[in-house]
Structures are given as C-alpha cells and as structure tokens.
Amino acid sequence: MPTLREHSADLMSGKVAIDDAHPMQPRLVAEEVASRSYFVASFANVTAFDTDAGLVLVDTGSFVLADRTRELLRGVVAAPAHTAIWTHGHVDHCFGVEGYEEEAGRHVHVIAHEAVPRRFERYRLTRGYNDRINARQFQTKAPFPGEFRAPDELYDERRSVDIGGRRFELHHALGETDDATWVWVPDAGTLCAGDLVIWASPNCGNPQKVQRYPREWAKALREMAAYGAEVLCPGHGVPIYGAANVHRLLDDTASYLESLVDQVVTLLNRGASLDDILAAVKPPAELATRPYLAPIYDEPEFVVRNLCRLYGGWWDGNPAHLKPPREADLARELAGLAGGAAKLAERAGAVDDPRLACELIEMAYRAAPDDPAIQSARKAIYAARAKAERSLMARGVYAWAAR
C-alpha cells in the first residue's frame, strides 16, 4: 500500500482517480506528517501532536471507529493524551476521548467552539431523525448516539493555547457547520482543517442536514491560505503536502464556492425562481475538474439549493408551491388525466431523462401505492438512478427509495 504522501501525490496528479479512492472510505493508516505530528486516516481523521506534556489531538474519532483509530495512532506514537481539540461536533469527529483517558489514567482536557453544546442538544432532540438520515446517507444500521462527552473549555472566535512547548491557534469558522474550528500549528507548519477540506466538492448543500454557509466557508479557506502551510490535514481524505499544493487547494476551493455564491445572489437579486437558478448556476468548468472538488459526496446543485434557502427562505418562487395540495391528491388527479396510474408508470419507464422518470413514477406510486407492478417499476427506476449518480448523498437517497 502506498504511503499517505504517495497516495496524496497520486491523487493530485490524476494518476489515481478520486472516485477510486473515495475520501469517505477510511484508509486506516497512521503516519508521521511533520515533526512530532501524526495523522490517522480514518472516518473521520485524527491528527496528533506530541508535546512535552503529552499528545494534543485534533479530533478524537467517530462513534464507530474511535477505538480502532486510537489503536492505529499507538502504532506511531506512544505518549498519553493531554488535550483534545474538536474541529466541530459531528459524531464522526468527537468520540473516543474516554479511551484516551483510560489508557492515560488521567482526564483529557477538551476544547471546542461554544456552539458545540447546542449541536449536542439538537442531536438529542432529533435522534430518531438522525438515525434515518444516516441509514439513507451511509446505508448503515449503526444507531445514532444519544449521549455526548461535554467539552471542558469553550471559545468564541479565536484562542491560542501553549501546551508542552508547542502552540496551537484555534480559529472559528462558519462552513459545513456553525461550530467549526480550524487549527494552525506553527512549529509543524501544519493546518488542521476539519471538514472545511474533505477531498471533494464542499459539503455545503447536504439535502438532509441543517444550514451550511458557503460564503463564510470561502473566507475561512482564504484565511488558512495566508499561513503558507506545508501540510494540510483534512477532516476526510489524505493530507496535502507542499506549500504550493496546499495553497492551490485552498484557493481553488474558495474560488469554487465564491462563484456559486455570486451566481446565486445575482439571480436572486433579479427575482429569479429556484427552478431558473438551478438551471443557470454551474461551478467554474476548470475548477470542477480538480480532484479535490469532484462532486462525489455533496454536489453543486445541492449547494445552490442551500444558498437559496440561506438567502431567500424555503419558498421556491412558484406561487402554486406556497400552499400546495397533498402530494397524493395531486398524483391521483394527474393519474386520472393520464388515463390511470399505470399509464404514468408506463411513461416513466419509457422516457430517457432520469429526472423526469423519477417524477413520473413517484406520481404513479402515490396515486396507486398498493399496485405491485408500479412498485416494481418504481424500484427499478430508483435503483438505476442510484447506480448512475456520482455523489454519495444522491446515491444514498435513491438507493433508499429503491429499497
């Protein structure tokens, strides 16, 4: 197996396609990435910095893989943990602290942004919903957590801490989350970006999750780029090595997001509807080909929808959709006009446009949900749609619908 550095170079050069090395597939490898600085490629990644007081961890692991991630880390560094910094409160980043405490025989001090406890409270409130999201998005049966380790220390916008002779500079950002932290470690020349960098088109349009912040995300990326880091440790995927590569990735990703924001805001200001905006807005063609901006997790269409929600509310501009009929009522009416639900299903199987096919078969199904032939046609159409989609989020929803 190639080293993390070799694999990163292969992805950057295009020798290995990002679709064949999906960043959401954990590599389960641990390596030193800078002096006394170690990276575990997992789901999600963990970065550890060896100090005279013990390890400072940036993220601590997922609720599923935290123990395995810690075991991998122990293959490259033996020092006990002293402090943990969470880049945000997603459940693939903030679990496993207790394992480090148990092996160290002492408390591990956890630092996080002040919005993290609010996230945990929302997760408790919506645990059932998040169970269903995970089942669709990741095809997992792992139950969503209901209990969370509370941070010991909260900060608001910036915080510098000196631990065991090394400095860690924490910066808050709005991006995929409202509680994001990125960390600069000057003596290692290393940035820990959390999910502000994930080796994919930025996850700021997720159709099943709360609000994301593309404009502010781009601003954070430009702030990171100014540091001239030699190594960037992302939340998912492998590290990026070399100041030129790090700067290029950060600059390209910021430009990608800024372009989507500018296009959407311009059209909103002209009074365009969501439908018109979705048809018009595209990411810059050159940037869309970058291996670290491929739409393999989230995708630009979802980002556009999220931007319209952020700046324009939930109404799409179609007056019929402000207070629409029940979907089943509309489906039965259209099925009647078409000559029956079976006619809609037949047409769905005949059209070449997968978007239109899904809309027609869904109408047929809602008009006659107990019809076995329509059920079978619906399953086939969504299974084919799932197979054809590139982004993990779209595949997950269509595969769920097929099931």
Structural class: alpha/beta
**Strand tally:** 13
Question: Helix proportion of residues, in percent?
Answer: 40-55%
Please describe the biggest sheet, giving its number of strands, its sense, and whether it closes into a barrel: 7 strands, mixed
Total individual domains:
3
Strand order of the largest sheet: 1-2-3-4-5-6-7
Contiguous uncertain segments of 5+ residues: none
Summarize the helix and strand pattern as letters.
HEEEEHEHEHHEEEEEHEEHHHHHHHHH
Under CATH at level 1, the class of the largest domain stands as Alpha Beta
Strand-residue fraction? 15-25%
The average pLDDT value, as a whole number, equals: 97
CATH superfamily of the largest domain: Metallo-beta-lactamase domain
Q: What is the terminal-to-terminal distance?
A: 35 Å
Alpha-carbon Rg, integer: 23 Å
SS element count, helices:
15
| Architecture (CATH level 2) name of the largest domain | 4-Layer Sandwich
- CATH fold title of the largest domain: Metallo-beta-lactamase, Chain A
- Principal-axes geometry comes out as elongated
Task: Describe the structure in brief.
It contains 15 helices and 13 strands.
Written account of the structure:
The protein is 43% helix and 16% strand. The protein has 15 helices and 13 strands. The protein has 3 domains: 4-254, Metallo-beta-lactamase, Chain A (4-Layer Sandwich); 258-312, no CATH class; 325-402, Alkyl sulfatase, dimerisation domain (Serine Threonine Protein Phosphatase 5, Tetratricopeptide repeat, Alpha Horseshoe), CATH 1.25.40. Helix 5 packs across helix 15 (392-402) and helix 13 (354-367) packs antiparallel against helix 14. The mean pLDDT is 97. The protein is elongated and about 75 Å long. The chain is an alpha/beta fold.
